[in-house]
Structure formats: C-alpha cells, structure tokens
Amino acid sequence: MNWKEQLKKFVNTPERLSTYVNLSEEERAVLSDNKTTWGTTPHFASLMDKDDPNCPIRKQVIPSALEKQNCYGMEDYLVWKENRATDEVRPDSIARQYRDRVAFTVTQTCGVYCRHCFRKELVVDGNLKLNFNLDEGLHWLAAHPEVRDVLVTGGDPFLLADEQLEYLIRKLRELPHVEMIRFGTRTPIVLPQRIDAGLKKVLGGYHKVPIWLNTQCNHPKELSEETARAVYDLLGCGVNVGNQAVLLKGINDDVETFRHLHQKLLSVRIKPYYVFYCEAAPGIDHFRTPIEKGAELIRDALRGHTTGLAQPMSVVATNIGKIPLMPDYYIVNKKAKEYTLRNHKGELTTLPNIPE
Ligand code: SF4
C-alpha cells in the first residue's frame, strides 16, 4: 500500500480497527461514545498487539474513558503554551517563544491522532480553531529577518502533497535569513511509506540551507523494518533524523522499556534528541509522570548503562521555552583543591580543582 492508499484506508472506525485487534468491552464502549478525532494508518495499526488492551500502541491511538477526567490539565493550554495571547501581530500559523526561531504550523491533519498530544485541543478535540495559510506565514517570515531557524510542524507537515512541500521549502530557502529548516513529523514511524521517490526528490540534493527532521517514537514496538528503510532514505537525502519521545506513564516510563527504546532508535539510525515531559494539556492526566521522571530514567537506564549516543536531553516544554531537567548527582563535592565526582554505579573519584 502506498502512502495515499494508507490514508484512504485510515483506521478510524471500530469496524476497521477490529480487523487489527480484538477490541475489549471497554474500548468498544469508549469508541461508541467518542466525539473526538481519532485513528491511525493501517501500517501503525498493524503493529498493535491483537489481544492486549495495554499494548503501548493501542494506548496511544484508542481513546480512553480517562480522557474525560481532567484534574490537572490547563484549559486553553495551547494558547498559553504557544504564547498566542500576545501583543505581537502574528498569523495563526506562527508560534513564537524565542527570538531566532519559530514554529510554523502548516496543517492540522495527522497520520495518528495521539491521545497524549499537547496540541489535542486543536487536532484531536477540535475546540480550538486556527487558520493555517502557507503564504500568510511565509509573508510574516519574510518580514522577520531575526528568524534564522524555522520549525515546520502541524498536525503532520509530511501529509502535505509533494508539490506543496516543494513550494514551502523553496520559498523558505529564498529567505536570505533562514539558515535551517526543521520538520516535526511522525510519518517515519506511523506512515513510513510517505518517504517515497516523490518526496525524496523534494528533499534531496545538496543545498546550503539544510533540512533537519525530528520524529516521535515512544516505544520500541513502533520501530518496524519499513521505518528503518524510510530513515535510511531520508539520510540519503541529506536529512538528519532525530527523535523526540514523550514520556508516557505505563508506556515508556520504566527502565527496561526506556533503555530498549533508545537503543533501538540508534539501530535504525535515529538519534535520540529529546524526551519531553508529557505536557499539561486537558484530559491527559493519566499519561503524566512526576516531572523528575525523565532525568531519573536517563540516570538509571542510559547514562553509563549504554552507548552515550542513546542519551536524549530531558526537557519540560513551557510557555517560556524548554527547561532542561537532567540528572544532577554527578558532582558530589567541590573543595578549594578538588572535586569529588560520582559515576552511574555510585563509585566516587576525585579530580583537581584548578583555580580560575
Ligand atoms: S502526530 Fe503530532 S500533532 Fe498529530 S496528534 Fe500526534 S503528537 Fe499531535
């Protein structure tokens, strides 16, 4: 099935989903009552466990009754997070938290409607209506020479047609101040068929304005042969591929899964970049861990326990930008003449403290 056929056969009815899994009574009940956008591609559905409702892919795709409980999520989360209530005049497509880089939203369509999505008010619940016009965004960018880095996001920008992506990339590269283009897309994971000859033509070829790509893979089960091939092809086009995992309770917040996920990402040539704290959007309390959990998992599962390249940075994304939260137990003591340092096994060593 090519990518367009995958989208035509999008798995977003209980009948279609039943061809991949044996739905539990609870899943059936929630789906029959569901008013939100949900579903995924046949490719991603085929990776689900047929009989286990706790399958990490099922939990990311199939709506849960817990989404109706909202004790800690913030209403109007996206407006707060993306600084949309500001005096700066910007089109809906441009979200800004930093001076030299912006997020440019080009669609609200996705290849999977993740239940934990921090943009769920927009893409899953449909409570927030925004207007994403490519030319309006490009026009704003042309008038802002301080922006050197544009993150193209969504929804999933790789669901645009090849012609639209070619136009977008060409127009961005025509702006003399744009030094790099980034894409945030789950297609390498949920729709690897999207990385086809047409897209490779759009992305490939040497250019002085590079394209970087970050995908989102949250569990080792999501990594298929098709994904490995798609990533290889992206790299062949000069597009580096990183991962931005979301830390999800009951899905990837244990040492073994967390380590396996990051090791397996490297085995398919994806570089772990971030692990995000699951954000305080409404209706996703059940996915959220304590805020320190990401740093603890890096300490207990990765740092010193496996290849250094497997280590992402743990961050909390907020309205004032990303706040890094990394393990901080390494420097045990600092004296006038020496430092005492601790390794991942708890062993201590000392190094001289050189005066400044
Ligand atoms: S693909 Fe991205 S934007 Fe779409 S639902 Fe998932 S996390 Fe949200």
What key attributes describe this structure?
binds iron/sulfur cluster; single chain; globular; 30% helix; three-stranded antiparallel β-sheet; TIM Barrel; alpha/beta; 356 residues; nine-stranded mixed β-sheet
Task: Tell me about this structure.
This protein is of the alpha/beta class and 356 residues long. It folds into two domains: 64-325, Aldolase class I (TIM Barrel), CATH 3.20.20.70; 330-356, no CATH class. Helix content is 30%, strand content 17%. It has 14 helices and twelve strands. The chain has helices at residues 3-8, 14-17, 25-33, 42-45, 56-61, 77-81, 120-123, 134-142, 162-174, 187-190, 197-203, 225-236, 255-267, 293-302; strands at 94-96, 101-105, 149-153, 180-184, 211-215, 240-247, 271-277, 313-318, 321-324, 331-334, 338-342, 348-352. A nine-stranded mixed β-sheet has the order 1-2-3-4-5-6-7-8-9. A three-stranded antiparallel β-sheet has the order 10-11-12, with no helix packed on it. α14 links the parallel β7 and β8. α9 packs parallel to α11 (197-203) and α13 (255-267) crosses α14. The longest helix is centred in the middle third of the chain and has 13 residues, at 162-174. Bound molecules: iron/sulfur cluster. The site of iron/sulfur cluster has 11 residues, from loops. The site of iron/sulfur cluster (SF4) has 11 residues, from loops.
